[in-house]
Structure formats: structure tokens, C-alpha cells
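User: I've been going back and forth on whether these two constructs are worth ordering. Before I decide, could you fold them both?

Assistant: Sure. I'll take them in the order you sent them. The first construct and its C-alpha cells:
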Amino acid sequence: MKKIELITRNELETRFKECLQQRRMPDYFLYIGEQRGNKSWHNVNSCKELPICAQLTDLLRQSLPSLVDSFPRNLSLVSIGVGRGEKERLLLEALLKRGLSRYYAVDISSRMIDEALRAVADLKVDKVGLVAFLEDLPLLRQYWSPPILLCLLGNTFCNFDPNYILALIWGQLEESDLLLLDCHLLSDQMEESNDPGQEQIERIYRTEPTMRFSINPLVQRGFDTDNCVFHLEFRPVETDIGLVYKTNKQLQVLKNTTISCGQDTVSLSSGDVIQLGFTYKYTRQQAEEYLRRNGFEKLQTFLSSDGENLLLLVRKGQEGQGSPGKASLGEKD
């Protein structure tokens, strides 16, 4: 069991400073930093008002007997954004019965990789932790050999531009590799409503644990929680595949303040607005269409009984329309 760091703590702080200077704070910064940052995530992950992670884990557990039959023998498991590694343990236990080469846990948080590796310490498989960004995937592929099962679980797919992330992954897979991803869907009830999901989304993302989690990277660096207003809206976005929905999260600074970023500082002024990360909500048909357009062929599809959670096993097919060099959802003006 070993851990390889492709990005250092100092490099992370430099990137955080650069983003904050642009008044942006991408979601991946939520998972790094001091131990309380991980604790904040665990609080959100177990929050009853935010059951998405638990529901997706249940769907994977229920789908495993059928999934495993589709896996070739001697796969290596590669999980991007591994978190605590709960879903990965389920997969590893099933894969070990068919022969398993190696387990690669990839995350931007060094602490979370430690947790994920500890969660499977008793399993007899070679384990490697890789501290890296998703966009480092072209560099990461040197560490494993095909065939691999690349996992993008925990609704991670919905936190990126779909064309960008799928084109990036497509370019790094071999014909023998598989991709397993999940997502929390825009439900039929929400889609048919005149105000699709606004009340439900606000109820989920306005919980106290979620809002604290959203500002935790700033709090770790000296920010006062009373010095901001959290704004959230759930808005439609017209794209080339139709109307999709997207959360828009912002922090409005109330008083002048200074944020520590390693050896440097960033000054924030009263009235500044910091753009936070986003989450897309797709219908099942939209999620599958993005995969098709980006060159993936469906092998198996699993849908939860309430129709709100989707798990897809796909493989690399013909080259799609997306490009890893251009992050574009196809949004229309």
C-alpha cells in the first residue's frame, strides 16, 4: 500500500489563491485542507436531508450481482474522487472473487485517500493512492495497465461539464476498459412541474451542514462565518440536447477581510461575490445522450425504484463530439 502525490500542498494553496483572486472557489477545494474539512464532508454525507450519497450507494449494492457478471477477470479498479472509499469496498469485495489486479484510489484530498485505503486494508489486493486532480488523468494512466474499471461515483459526473469530463475520460481508456458512473437525476415529478425541483433542491442544499461545508475552505483560512450571505438558485439552462437544470451557488462578502493562502493573502471587499461550484440535474435520457455523443456504448443500466438515481456501465466506442480541450456543455445564449 503506497501513496503518490502528483500535486503538493503548496501547489494546492497557490491554485486556491489564484481562484480566490478571480472570486471563484471550485468544489474540489471543499475536500482538502485540515481534518475538520473531511469531517465537514462526512457530516454532509450522512445528513438525512441530503440522502443522495446513501441512495447511490444502495443502488450500487443492489446492482452488483448483475454488474460483476459483465466484468472481465483480472481487472484493476481505478476510482476518481474516491472519498471515504465505501462504494469502492463493495466493488473490491465482488471483484476479488473474479480475480483482481490492483486498486487505485484517486482524490485531491490526501487525507481522504488515507481513509479510503484504511477502509480496505484487510482486503488482499495491491493498493495505490494517487493525490491528483481529475484533469491529471493523462498523467495518471502511466500507473496502471488495461483492463481497468474506471469509476466516477458519488454523483461526481454531475459536478463537471459533461462533454469535458467524458471526452477526457474517453481519451484515456483502452478498448478493453470499462467506465462505471452514477448520477442523481431530475425526477419525472420535478420535470413535469412548472417549477422543476426548486423547492426540493433548496431544501437539500440549504441545510446547515451543507452551507457550512460550502464555506469551509474559507473558514479554515480565517474567514468569519457571519461575514457572508449564501445564495442558491436552481435554474434552467438551454443546451444542444434540450433544457437541463443547474445549481448556482454564491457567497456574498459583507465586510472587508483577508484570507490566508499559504504564505500569501487575498483581500476580499464588502460586496464581493464568490462563485462556488455547481451541480447539473439531468433526466435519464439526457445523461445517456451525453454518453452516446461522447463515444460511449452502454452495457448495463440500473435505475432506482423511485427513478431518481442512475448507474451506468459503459465502454469506449466510436470517437464522440466532445473535446477535452474545450469545456462546453453546449449552452445557448
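The second construct, handled the same way:
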Amino acid sequence: MDINISANYYDFSSLPPSEVRGLWIEFIHQLQNDICAALEASDGKAKFIEDAWERAEGGGGKTRVIADGNVFEKGGVNTSIVFGEVTDLMKSQLKINGDKWFACGLSLVVHPFNPFVPTVHANYRMFELYDSSPEGGGREGILNDRWFGGGTDLTPYYLFEEDAKHFHRTYKDACDAFDPSYYAKFKKECDNYFVNTHRNNERRGIGGIFYDYQKPTEDKDVNFWMKLARTCGYAFIDSYIPLVEKRKQTPFTPEHKHWQEIRRGRYTEFNLVHDRGTIFGLKTNGRIESILMSLPPTVRFEYNYKPEPGSEEDKLLQACLEPVDWTNNSHKAANTKSDAKKFSNT
């Protein structure tokens, strides 16, 4: 199943040399291996199936999917290494300039079966742009631009504040190791990005961190941004797996599943209408199965559906409408142990 697509697997002869490119590819593939192992261990039944693919214009990737497990109804942990000529469409739609481009990243989405286990998404990526030399010939070209992006965000269906605090504190600790201002900045970016503006600015979930177009500088160089991505990438395991272990055995009813599918509909709306990653994949002739892997297996779209005011479903909705500072210790927890017991008795 595991195809050895190393940093030297693809023919990069059309691109300028880049040591950073090779190091990033190795990191992304190792992160994919380690996250898949952690998810398989938590599920206890299902295993990832790998589908290695190649892109005619340059590059390819490894799509790994998991389905019908004890815990995970559908999920994917994908890596892609893609490159090629900057087209006129890319220039106009993506607002980039250059002759050639390279992008490599990991993208994952996991949709658990149990409505009390949250859905999670993560993405860590690097993008390079190159200018060809006056004589032509890609290898004589130069690096035009480079930036990093990434983040991890949580989409629960029922709100356990202790879980939300654990998730966000894990990422605050990860960000604080690099810059104490980053968590608040990246959380705000996340809250403002994963939002269905066509639904009264309703967030997809309760957020996390998100950063994009981060370019190396003298004081925060390439190594800085690669180390940040590594720390935040591996924080996925520490932030998410404990929540799965805590909630995966919680009994649930058809009504809980109904609400989960309503919220999954909102997830689908965002990914198809607003998500830049989806748009980028479609504009660059990306692999459609990998691009749409993020969509949940079952969803509901019911006309003008609204949860009962004051219900547990409504509590989740309100948290999606008004982002919360989950690292603020003064924030009162609504779902205590008695609340968790209440859920288990339904």
C-alpha cells in the first residue's frame, strides 16, 4: 500500500534546485505516516487504503482513505506534490505571477460515525514560484516567491467545553513556542476563514488555527516556518486523539445522528462554495477524487431547519455564530460531567 514517493521520485528538472523543497516533502510524508498510524490505532478496526496517483502536468500524490471503521465513517489523509507552468487562468484567478510553480502539502479530514466525536480538518503546505532565466530553461530560473500555510480546526456536533478547551490550549501551546502573539492571530484568521458568509456568518465549527501566505524574513526564516509547521502538524495527534478516545463509546440516538447530518450539510456548503483549497485544486487540474475527499458520506439539507432554542444543538449553533476564546479560564463550562452523563442516558 505504501508507495515510496520520496523527494527524488518526481522529475523536477524543469524547476530550479531547492533544498527546502526536498526537506518539506520528507516532512509531509512522515507526518502523513504518523497521523495515519494514530488514527488507525484509535479506530481499532479500519486501515487506510493508499491510492498513489500522478498528474500529467507534473507531480502527483498519495491519497489515503479510511472508511467504515469502529470510529471513523469516512476520512482521508492526503499528500500532494504538484508543479508546472503558471497559466493565464492561474494568474487571473489565483493572483500569482511567475513562470513556474510548485506546491506540496498534507490535507486531512476525518468524519467519525458517532455524533459526539467531532470532525477535524488539517492542512499544512508550502508554495514556491519561479521565474525562468532570460535564456529560458527552467533549471537556470530563480526563486520568485515562497510562502507557507497551514492550520487545524475542529467541527463538533455537540459542544463539550472541556474538549474545546483541550483542543485550543494544545494549539496555543504549540504557537506560543514560536511567538506568543500567533495563537490569537491565527485563531482569528481561522474564525474568519471557515465561515459560511451566506448563512449569517455561521462558522463551520469552533475553529482552531489558520495561517496563510507566511513568507520567510530575516528574523523568521525558512527554518522557522518549517519548525512551526512541524510542531503544529504533530499537535494534531495530541489535540484530537484524546477527544476521540473520550467520546467514541458514547451512546447516541437517531436524533443525534440527524443533527450531525444537518451540520455536515453546512460543512459541505463551505467546502464547495468558499474553500480556497478546493478552488485551487479545480483551477490547476487537480485530482477530483482527492479534492472532494473532504466531503462527508451522508448529509441533510432541510428547508429552513432551526434547532430548538436552548437545546444542546442550539448551544453548538450559537458557538458557531459567535466565536469563543476557549483558552480563557474565566469562561464558564456549560457541559460538565453531569452533562456528559445526560448525553449517555438519552
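Notes on the second construct follow. DSSP finds ten helices and nine strands in the chain. The first helix runs from residue 19 to 43.
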